[in-house]
Specification:
about 270 residues; Rossmann fold; alpha/beta; 7 strands; 7-stranded parallel sheet; about 10% strand
């Protein structure tokens, strides 16, 4: 897949992997639509892009506003060639200590928001007979991890929905790519929700020892260009990336390993 001349829409583009993807696609010659909640941060990322950009801030869970947002995005160059559903929120709380409304928030942001945005963008792609959907899941979309019950649920849903959609729309020339990042040094852990719905706000998570967002973007662009349906994103040989293979080879061992990472607390 060539990126030069394509119009690529990235949500969650104000920081982290989204910002890395924005600058990488711009260097590859794409026109980039940058979306996120923080207009100032989007403007900063746009300043680093060596290509034409459209800054289109919006709240991903404001589903009623999405049709008008999509219309503005499509009107910029006439079409969306690739939609990158990257916006998301993580979690750092035990399931026994997490309020139900926190689960709903995580599912809305990490699953229903990208689902709905994709529904609105897909018809034009199918009508043209080409396009690409890129959904940023996680290793947590394939492996159950302690302190992330809601996050894992949403990302597993995103992976399953992506796989099923790929099977349905391949006949129309539209591809679906799933990203499964491991540890990438972004603010995702700092901004994760805890059990009462507040933001964790602590920068002491192992994820911060991972590859950079720019390194992640390079892996992702290479994977999409090669036509890979599922793209692992992480340091080669890293322990969290090995979990993907362990899930396939020996799921019972994986379950035991993950249980060993759970906090051991008296109840």
């Amino acid at each position: 897949m060539e990126f030069s001349g394509k119009t690529i829409w990235i949500t969650g583009a104000s920081s982290g992997i989204g910002a890395g993807l924005a600058t990488a696609f711009a260097r590859a010659g794409a026109q980039v639509i940058l979306s996120g909640r923080r207009a100032e941060a989007l403007a900063e990322v746009a300043g680093r892009c060596q290509a034409a950009t459209l800054q289109l801030p919006f709240e991903t869970t404001d589903l009623a506003a999405l049709p008008e947002i999509v219309a503005r995005a499509e009107a910029w160059t006439g079409q969306i060639d690739m939609l990158v559903n990257n916006a998301g929120i993580s979690q750092r709380s035990l399931g026994l200590d997490t309020r139900f409304d926190v689960y709903r928030t995580i599912m809305e942001v990490d699953f229903f928001a990208p689902l709905r945005l994709t529904q609105l963008v897909l018809p034009a792609m199918i009508g043209r007979g080409n396009g690409a959907i890129v959904n940023n899941a996680s290793v947590a979309g394939k492996v159950g991890s302690a302190l992330r019950t809601g996050y894992c649920a949403a990302k597993h849903a995103l992976v399953g929905w992506s796989d099923a959609m790929r099977a349905e729309i391949a006949q129309y020339g539209v591809t679906v790519h799933v990203l499964t990042p491991g540890f990438v040094a972004t603010s995702i852990a700092d901004n994760a929700l805890v059990g009462d719905g507040s933001v964790r706000g602590v920068a002491d998570d192992p994820v911060n020892d991972g590859i950079t967002a720019d390194e992640a973007a390079t892996i992702i662009l290479d994977g999409i260009a090669a036509g890979r349906s599922e793209i692992p994103v992480g340091r080669e040989g890293a322990a969290e990336m090995a979990l993907l293979d362990l899930k396939r080879r020996d799921p019972e061992r994986l379950f035991a390993v993950m249980a060993g990472f759970a906090p051991q607390l008296a109840r």
